[in-house]
Amino acid sequence: MYVYILTNPTQTVLYIGVTNDLTRRLYEHSSGRGDTGKFTGRYQTDLLVYFEICPNATQAIAREKQLKGWTRQKKDALIAAFNPTWQAIDLETWAG
Asked: Structure pTM?
């Protein structure tokens, strides 16, 4: 299970989610770009800037809720520690 954070090109919006297949979920987000009925489409949040692996769904959901409760400043610091340049992560080439 994965907890992940997406942002938009101007890094003004963050989206936090959970999935068991990060590659598939990123594709779903990017194919919904511009769909105003969905948060990620409306705000164009399809750039992966952070992710972590959790051992099971229960822990992933708990971590997602924890991150959603954090201030923007704390979320920004977490992303910067993991991905200092906030470059969009390509899972095929990410060296971590």
From this structure: 0.91
